[in-house]
């Protein structure tokens, strides 16, 4: 037993929670273009492919920063990484809000993605120090919940605020709030409880600095079979949620279910909310039973069946559509098990690097599929438009969304080849 007490949960959640706020902001920024498609498409004369690229440029930088973030968090601590990320996110949001040309809008989105991309990996690094190991999967689930709160706030609430104050005004307010968060992160967050006079849940807080070089640490993590598999599987499970709720779900529901933009945004937000609420419970249940693989595989299968129903079956009764989306969101929450699963498969000293690799895979689905679906929609466009924006048939959406189902099918197969860790660190 340590001679000093472990940190109280209230303090641990305060330190971790400030990182979670940046993650929340990241989800808000990720989903916002789905609700602002009308304004962005009309103001900048965007086709579906161009709109997909505008949304996906966030993912390009977000994905690219994941592994470097893990390495930096392992070497320099999450406090510095989170503070710098929040400051840059504020600058990127301001640029996006003030831009008068498409290149500047794209530059703002790119900077936002790179800066908020540090949040999740840094939070997971903090959690290894501030929380007991048996809480890791549950805390990962809570991280998803925080993120999805941000996504939900970018649904119907953003639509209402944009209607009232304009999309630029809302984004300027978001920039100011993110700048305030940067200051709070610097003054409150500490990398280890020892800096606050408490015992760390890492047995030797300073010894977890990796002995590997940066590239050596990355090679060490990527040498683990489970890490590679979970990298691809998490991308397949997350891709439909990030693509549907993050961009194409709202116009799909408006066109083919006759819903208002606000109602469509609310429905897509419900699927994300289900993902968020289920995350902590799925993680806790996996911790409790001491198994990762059964729940992981089951979630992938159920997610595949749910999305297949939404994407391939036209004219579902609205109540059935909502129920399927909610159930699919719950099933998709198993991606949070993937983070714990991968962490247990690689050295603890490289937890940040491992988290970066897995979160990179997590975001690949949205990064690749948002523009890919847009490209397919443009190929099937019949020339119909409304209020300056293109309108696409159900067959066009079905063709585009089929790309997501193909990745999900691969994810189910690969999940079967992962090796059970029994919720214990293998190294």
Describe what this molecule looks like in 3D:
By secondary structure, this protein is mainly α. The chain has one domain (9-192, 214-415): Growth Hormone, Chain: A (Up-down Bundle), CATH 1.20.1250. Helices cover 78% and strands 1% of the residues. The protein has 17 helices and two strands. The chain has helices at 9-35, 37-44, 48-76, 78-98, 102-116, 119-130, 136-153, 156-165, 167-188, 214-222, 225-257, 261-289, 293-312, 318-332, 335-345, 351-380, 394-415, and strands at residues 385-386, 389-390. A two-stranded antiparallel sheet has the order 1-2. β1 and β2 form a beta hairpin. It is globular.
Provide the domain count.
1
Largest sheet: 2 strands, antiparallel
- Across the major sheet, the strand order is 1-2
Number of helices: 17
Summary of the model, kept short:
The chain is mostly helical and about 425 residues long. Helices cover about 80% and strands about 0% of the residues. The chain has one domain (about 10-190, about 215-415): Up-down Bundle (Growth Hormone, Chain: A), CATH 1.20.1250.20.
What is the topological layout?
Layout: H1 9-35, H2 37-44, H3 48-76, H4 78-98, H5 102-116, H6 119-130, H7 136-153, H8 156-165, H9 167-188, H10 214-222, H11 225-257, H12 261-289, H13 293-312, H14 318-332, H15 335-345, H16 351-380, E1 385-386, E2 389-390, H17 394-415
Antiparallel strand pairs: 1-2
Helix pairs in contact: 1-3, 1-5, 1-6, 1-7, 1-9, 1-11, 3-4, 3-5, 3-16, 4-5, 4-6, 4-9, 6-7, 6-16, 7-12, 7-15, 8-9, 8-12, 11-12, 11-15, 11-16, 11-17, 12-14, 12-15, 13-14, 13-15, 13-17, 15-16, 16-17
